[in-house]
Amino acid sequence: MLKARSYNFSGESGEEFELPEELFDGVVHEAALYQVVKAHLANQRQGNASTKTRGQVSGGGRKIWRQKGTGRARQGSIRAGHWTGGGVIFGPTPRSHRQDVPKKVRQLARRSALNTRALEDRVVVIESFDLDAPRTRAIRDLLERIELTGSVLVLTDGPREVVHLSGRNLPNVTVLPFAQASTYDILHAKHLIIEKAALERTDEAEAPQEEETANA
After folding, report:
1. Which of 10, 37, 119, 150 lies most in the core, judged by the most C-beta atoms within 10 Å?
2. What is the pLDDT of residues 102-129, one digit of tens each?
């Protein structure tokens, strides 16, 4: 069973927390990770690149010179692709880069991402975020006490507006509800800070609202 370091909001260390086996089974499926991350990045593309073919470029309706007798190659239009100002041959047109991934593959990839961070000892469990009002300094002091550097993903037990407002001004900190964190979010962060109560809701955490297939 995988374990993680645990702290209270003051940064005081506690006993090691046993991570739930439903999410942290120690299995890392690299193929699922690759497929889901690739789909997520593809779905962020807008696909707006567009060029005009020779039929869409204005002008060029008159034949440049007669077909025979000039000694030059025959030409039908100055808007052909090999002419300056002509159309583009086989150029890009607007299209969707959307890639769909089966739900079970997304869930497998998410568990694999969590296991990756747990096996690297980059998962920290916090008893609770005791904040009555937004305080950026409180989140910054917590990170300093538990000695976390680099990008940090804070996963809360459901939407916690006060925690989100406290962490949004820190450049390397992202705050999300645990059930909504996607595979890409988890892998993009170097460390994970998870609220203890969120790990006790494994039934909800198994069905994240993934972004990999949300955007076209």
Report:
1. 37
2. 999 999 999 999 999 999 999 999 988 8
Does pTM surpass 0.85? no
Sign of CA dihedral 208, 199, 167, 122: negative
Q: Which residue has the tokens 């680099």?
A: 150
Contact 32, 112 (CB under 8 A): yes
What are the residue boundaries of the structural domains of the chain, listed by start? 3-45+97-205, 56-96
- Confidence (pLDDT) at 147: 86
Q: Cα(136)–Cα(102) distance, rounded to whole angstroms?
A: 38
Asked whether residue 44 carries a pLDDT value surpassing 70, the answer given is: yes
Question: Contact 178/154 with Cβ under 8 angstroms?
Answer: no
For the chain, strand residue ranges (E) read: 3-7, 17-18, 123-126, 152-156, 173-177, 191-195
Please name the residue ranges forming H helices in 44-160.
Answer: 103-119, 136-145
Q: pLDDT tens for residues 19-39? A: 998 889 888 999 999 999 999
CATH placement of domain 3-45+97-205? 3.40.1370.10
Contact residues for 161 (Cβ-Cβ < 8 A; gap 6+): none
Instruction: Please tell me the distance from the alpha carbon of residue 45 to that of residue 21, in angstroms, as a whole number.
Output: 35
Residue given tokens 């909800």 in the structure block: 204
